[in-house]
């Protein structure tokens, strides 16, 4: 049978605003657990549970005004008798729900009946559980006892948290947001740079908040890690692909009817494998200690694919053993799979090097980020007809811009330049792919 839990005698205060509801239906609560926080113009206080049990229905919400006798919730009182007859082992082992209830921040609630609320500023400073908390600013911060308790448990100095509640009051969400921001910037903190400030962009005009996709968030984490932990160098070069394009166009026309699209990318995959054979350090990864280089004897090429949900990098395996046509067909399959969100994590692992081709879109050059644990990534931009001096005159040649980023811990600048020079030579004369 549910029991009505009402606001007890709270001194001279009436019609005080509910600023926080601390329980939800289904919660198991203990006597004196805080149920709601209320705030008048001068003070904030929490209303504790007169007894334990399971919350069946919460009858107030944030913003409601309550006075003595207002209904807070319906509670199914705990069955004490059942608890007493529980076997000792079970009693010693708290249930999941109880554990959850234990984990919940225990508000600094006054025992019932609550004493007259005291002004927040008068709250006595306590010994800080963390060195980071400045007791003076903590005690001056505008927050309810539950939020104070919560902040102490997380080691958050309330003096540093901006309040989004009424009159700048700090809410539990503000504390959680503060912790999330701190955790999302470990690298920045580690590098000793100032964290990104929280900015309200709406102060300058209309804005819209759009949540990042799961892929955006994951890719963002990897790219951020790779960007700050790998010393990058990008080597730019150009390849004369005039002859290659002539041959590709012939092939493309031939295979179009078979539904296979042959783009310059498959030639680049083959050329890259040829360069990996010549420069094995580019086909390696540093081991976890950073003291050994793991040289790979396989030739798997990751291809960056742009999808509506973000960037993914499926890996084409054994490129050395596949024909240009096989690769073109496989490329068609994996990009469709990527765009239909059918790639599995295993499809995106085990690469030797990655190619990021923006050639179908445009641009002249860019600086791709190494796809760790690989040590190099080749960026390809759009080929352009250009006047090239042949010793006697300018000749129109189709030039392909290449941007090779590499991990400078593994690859020296000279080898970076050798790699792109080799690549350029192979792409300029694709007969070399046969060698
Ligand atoms: N120069 C000139 N034209 C090029 C070219 C280049 N370097 N690369 C491709 N093209 C042409 C193709 O021949 C094709 O022309 P037609 O339609 O006339 O035949 C057109 O551009 C479109 O090519 P495509 O993009 O469909 O095919 P692709 O094999 O070049 O690339 C794929 C496939 C999956 C890599 C690509 O669709 C893609 O997603 N690219 C974006 C990758 C990306 O986002 N990288 C960024 C990572 S870093 O943040």
From TrEMBL:
<dbReference type="InterPro" id="IPR050743">
    <property type="entry name" value="2-oxoacid_DH_E2_comp"/>
</dbReference>
<dbReference type="GO" id="GO:0005737">
    <property type="term" value="C:cytoplasm"/>
</dbReference>
<dbReference type="GO" id="GO:0031405">
    <property type="term" value="F:lipoic acid binding"/>
</dbReference>
<dbReference type="InterPro" id="IPR001078">
    <property type="entry name" value="2-oxoacid_DH_actylTfrase"/>
</dbReference>
<feature type="compositionally biased region" description="Low complexity">
    <location>
        <begin position="77"/>
        <end position="94"/>
    </location>
</feature>
<dbReference type="InterPro" id="IPR000089">
    <property type="entry name" value="Biotin_lipoyl"/>
</dbReference>
<dbReference type="InterPro" id="IPR023213">
    <property type="entry name" value="CAT-like_dom_sf"/>
</dbReference>
<keyword id="KW-0450">Lipoyl</keyword>
<comment type="similarity">
    <text>Belongs to the 2-oxoacid dehydrogenase family.</text>
</comment>
<dbReference type="InterPro" id="IPR003016">
    <property type="entry name" value="2-oxoA_DH_lipoyl-BS"/>
</dbReference>
<dbReference type="InterPro" id="IPR004167">
    <property type="entry name" value="PSBD"/>
</dbReference>
<keyword id="KW-0808">Transferase</keyword>
<comment type="function">
    <text>The pyruvate dehydrogenase complex catalyzes the overall conversion of pyruvate to acetyl-CoA and CO(2). It contains multiple copies of three enzymatic components: pyruvate dehydrogenase (E1), dihydrolipoamide acetyltransferase (E2) and lipoamide dehydrogenase (E3).</text>
</comment>
<feature type="domain" description="Lipoyl-binding">
    <location>
        <begin position="2"/>
        <end position="76"/>
    </location>
</feature>
<dbReference type="GO" id="GO:0045254">
    <property type="term" value="C:pyruvate dehydrogenase complex"/>
</dbReference>
<dbReference type="GO" id="GO:0004742">
    <property type="term" value="F:dihydrolipoyllysine-residue acetyltransferase activity"/>
</dbReference>
<feature type="region of interest" description="Disordered">
    <location>
        <begin position="77"/>
        <end position="141"/>
    </location>
</feature>
<keyword id="KW-0012">Acyltransferase</keyword>
<protein>
    <recommendedName>
        <fullName>Acetyltransferase component of pyruvate dehydrogenase complex</fullName>
        <ecNumber>2.3.1.12</ecNumber>
    </recommendedName>
</protein>
<dbReference type="Pfam" id="PF02817">
    <property type="entry name" value="E3_binding"/>
</dbReference>
<dbReference type="InterPro" id="IPR006256">
    <property type="entry name" value="AcTrfase_Pyrv_DH_cplx"/>
</dbReference>
<dbReference type="GO" id="GO:0006086">
    <property type="term" value="P:pyruvate decarboxylation to acetyl-CoA"/>
</dbReference>
<dbReference type="InterPro" id="IPR011053">
    <property type="entry name" value="Single_hybrid_motif"/>
</dbReference>
<feature type="compositionally biased region" description="Low complexity">
    <location>
        <begin position="122"/>
        <end position="132"/>
    </location>
</feature>
<comment type="subunit">
    <text>Forms a 24-polypeptide structural core with octahedral symmetry.</text>
</comment>
<dbReference type="Pfam" id="PF00364">
    <property type="entry name" value="Biotin_lipoyl"/>
</dbReference>
<feature type="compositionally biased region" description="Basic and acidic residues">
    <location>
        <begin position="95"/>
        <end position="107"/>
    </location>
</feature>
<keyword id="KW-0677">Repeat</keyword>
<dbReference type="InterPro" id="IPR036625">
    <property type="entry name" value="E3-bd_dom_sf"/>
</dbReference>
<feature type="domain" description="Peripheral subunit-binding (PSBD)">
    <location>
        <begin position="142"/>
        <end position="179"/>
    </location>
</feature>
<dbReference type="Pfam" id="PF00198">
    <property type="entry name" value="2-oxoacid_dh"/>
</dbReference>
